[in-house]
User: What shape does this take?
Amino acid sequence: MKYDPREDGITHINIYSKAQTTLGRALSNWTPCIINTSIGQFRSIEGLIFYLGSFDERLRDVFGFKAKQLGEQLDRGIRLPEDIFRRIITEGMYSKIEHLPPEFQKQFKFSKLPFTHYYTYGNKVIDVPKWEWQIKVWEKIREELQ
Assistant: This one.
């Protein structure tokens, strides 16, 4: 489904570091937050994602563009089975909600708009179907909290 970025916060919530809503930005993989998982603590989902491909300890403490930049520089030769990869990322997502400031927890729990993820570059919208599973996890977590 194609969303209009001008309607972010009206018809949907884009989970993206440059989203129009504070909730969408808070849920972004880039946003710094305490993330606890079965393999330890991280400062962002982005760092966790890249860690799972390299096991480079520096990724535990980075967030935002720095996490992406470091992660892309590293040898990401490790390929975990998809179900394990997704399980660990999902753990991190649950932990992120628990550690977000109370106002974001409340916004998340009581939000009704569908979540989505796309990038915007000027007037261009780029869908990211690779991470659609993560959007479904956010929807599931929200449903469980309601």
Residues 97 and 105 are 6 Å apart (CA to CA).
